[in-house]
Amino acid sequence: MEFLSKYPKYIFLFLIVCFLQFKSTAQVDSSGCSRMKRGLFNFSNNVSQTIVVQRKKKQQIETNRSTGVVTTFKITWLSACSYQLKQAWSNSKAQRKSNGVSTVVVIGKTGPLFYEYSCVCNNAADIEKSKGVMFVIKK
Questions:
Q1: Amino acid 127: pLDDT
Q2: Whole-prediction pTM
């Protein structure tokens, strides 16, 4: 107890540093969104076709398993759990009409092998609100 009464300022300072360290560690993406920034994923589109998604640093490549259509996007992370996709290229003439169009995606609930998302998805023809589940194939 003598130590506590002799050095109260130092003990108080030590406790503050410990608290701040704990707080900053606890705020490091406890939601799991950061695990979804890279990897191989898949989802089903609105006509039940499987889309395989390969996500790297600043690029996302989507391949429709049914049609063979490949579409490349520039990905910009807006926050830990939201990102913007801007279509850059597609091997489909119809899909190329959406080149330059942006969509913002918000990640909701995350799990070890999936995340739920919602977006206001833009394409050349219309704007559509969408929700779905993206499954992790490989991290």
A1: 77
A2: 0.76
Burial per residue of 19-48, b for 16 or more beta-carbon CB atoms within 10 angstroms, e otherwise: eeeeeeeeeeeeebbeebeeeebbbeeeee
The confidence score (pLDDT) of residue 19 equals 43
CB atoms under 10 Å from CB of 123, counted, come to 14
What is the full DSSP assignment across 65-123? TTT--EEEEEEEEEETTEEEEEEEEES-TTGGGGTT-EEEEEEEEEETTEEEEEEEEE-
pLDDT at 129: 84
Distance (Å, whole) CA 112 – CA 135 = 9
Q: Which residue has the higher pLDDT, 46 or 16?
A: 46
Q: Which of 34, 52, 32 is CA-nearest to residue 43?
A: 52
Q: Which of 51, 79, 34 is nearest to 137 (CA)?
A: 51
